[in-house]
Each structure stands twice: as C-alpha cells, then as structure tokens.
Write a structure and sequence with these properties.
The chain has about 300 residues and is an alpha/beta fold. It contains 10 helices and 11 strands. Strands 2-3-1-6 form a 4-stranded mixed β-sheet.
Length: about 300
C-alpha cells in the first residue's frame, strides 16, 4: 500500500491510507514519522476510534485527531493508523484496547456489529478530506474483521495479495467459500454481484513467466471451485465464469504481480527512503501499479 499511495501522490492524487490490520499494525510506522520535532503521528488511531465510539462517541471536531500527514514525498497522503501517539506512549494499554474494540457496540439503537462500526468510521474520516483514492489495509487471517471488511466498506475493488504457497490458497478457500455460502452471489446490501470486485495480486513473484504461471494455475483452480458458475460454459455472456486463458481486469484469476526484490524484505521507508524512489519501485511494482491505476479508472502517467 505504501508504494501505491506514494505513486498516486507523486502524480497529483490526494490519498487516504487506513490501517485496519489492528492486530498487526504497521502502516503508521511506515508512513508517519514518530519522533523528534516532526512527529507526524495523530493522537489516536482506528482502534481508539472503535473503543471510544462505543463509550461516549466521537465528535466531528475530534476526527482531525485521527489523521496524520505523511512527509515521504511532495504529494498528499493522509494516514489513519491502527493506533496513534497515545497508545505508542502507553503500550501496556494496547492489548486491552483490542479486547474492547473488536466487539459489537450496544447502544440506544441496539447492537452495531463490528463491520458497521468500521463502515461508519471510514465514512466519517473520508468526509473530512477531499480524496481521490482511499486505500484500506484490511486484516490478514481468518476472522470477522477479515471477511467483513472485504465487503462491508463498499470498496470498488478488493485486492487480495498472496505468495504462491499452499497455505495462501487454503486461506482463500476458507474465506471465499464462507462468503459464497452466506451471501450467495449477491451482496444484498449493495444489490450487486460481489465477486466482480475481487482482484488477486501475486506477491514476491519470480522473474520468470513460467514461475508466475504456477500461481495462475492454482488461482484458476480456486476460482473454479469457489467463485465461478459451473453450469455456464467458459466465455459465455451469461454467468460468472471464464476459461483459463482469458485475461482482463474483470477476470479474477488473471492476477497481476509484484516481483520479488530483496530491497523490500525489510521495508522501512522512514529509515531508508530508497524503496519509495520511483526509479527503484517501478521495477518490481511496475505491473501492479499499472493494474491498480486501471482499476481506479485512471491511466498511469509515463
């Protein structure tokens, strides 16, 4: 997300990044300086919002205490981190906040599930800025906050990143099968086929096309088993189904990729900004960035 946000901002887009990987936060430490006279961390983060909103609520004036401005380039990147400066200064409170934040709210209007709380929070943050793109880092793993945020936030596209390992596809199968069973093919709230919003990204991909083809093989088998309509012929105008060789941004198993590069094994742009230089990241991230801009309905400048 940091590379995509930087690339968008470098080309004049106003970007909001939101870290909802609350049990493994990292986006704030990647994009916001957290020490010295130029401390960019906001007072609070997403986890603080969930905790405090369940108690006394968050006023409109307090929303600004949840947003930090990144300094990593000359562009415009706002960040809602998982946690803010207060939690960083009192780390002993972090685990307790997780226990209180990741639960239903119960108020005068009744129960509000976690997904609804997250949607309200994102909507309120977005309303306080004039953003061209909003990027959300959702939780990895198997939990309500994983599957729920995939669909509950109303995202235009859901990018599922994964390396070519058996456990990656096993996890995909669990979550996708759950969504198919609980939603069918329609997201009732949005009155649309939620499957059209899925896009996959092969992370740490090998440089050879043959190596990336093995990821595509596994991904096609996954999509055929969980997402695609078996009763329709591949390539037909009806149903949700494609043949193996079909390509395009509407074809879920036609994954884009991020090539493996050792410079990104230990990604700490606040310590070394080299990885966010355009001439560096366009090598491993070039194909992914082209696809991401296209999914956002923009043409990436050369």
């Amino acid at each position: 997300m940091s590379v995509l946000a930087t690339d968008l901002a470098r080309h004049g887009k106003r970007v909001l990044c939101i870290d909802l990987d609350l049990e493994a936060p990292g986006l704030g430490t990647m994009l916001l300086r957290g020490h010295g006279d130029d401390d960019r961390r906001p007072k609070y983060g997403a986890l603080d919002y969930l905790v405090e909103n369940g108690l006394d609520g968050i006023s409109a004036d307090e929303i600004y205490d949840f947003i930090g401005l990144s300094h990593l380039n000359d562009g415009y990147i706002h960040v809602l981190p998982a946690v803010g400066r207060i939690t960083d200064e009192h780390p002993e409170n972090m685990i307790g906040k997780l226990a209180r934040g990741l639960v239903e709210d119960i108020g005068p209007a009744g129960r509000q599930p976690l997904t609804a709380q997250l949607r309200e929070m994102v909507d309120r943050i977005v309303d306080h800025g004039d953003y061209d793109a909003v990027l959300v880092d959702a939780r990895a793993g198997l939990a309500e906050i994983t599957a729920g945020t995939w669909l509950g936030l109303g995202a235009r596209k859901l990018l599922l990143f994964g390396v070519n390992q058996l456990q990656t596809f096993q996890g995909y199968r669990y979550v996708l099968s759950h969504l198919v069973q609980t939603l069918g093919v329609l997201d009732v709230a949005a009155s649309e086929d939620w499957r059209t919003r899925l896009a996959f990204v092969h992370s740490k991909a090998p440089s050879s096309g043959e190596g990336r083809l093995r990821f595509r093989d596994r991904l096609y088998e996954l999509c055929a088993a969980t997402l695609y309509d078996a009763e329709d012929e591949p390539g037909s105008d009806s149903g949700f189904n494609w043949g193996f060789d079909e390509t395009g941004t509407d074809v879920p198993h036609d994954a884009t990729f991020i090539a493996y590069h050792p410079d990104y094994d230990a990604f700490e742009p606040l310590e070394d900004g080299t990885a966010l230089r355009q001439d560096v990241y366009c090598g491993p991230y070039g194909a992914f960035l082209q696809r991401a801009w296209h999914l956002l309905d923009w043409e990436r400048p050369e």
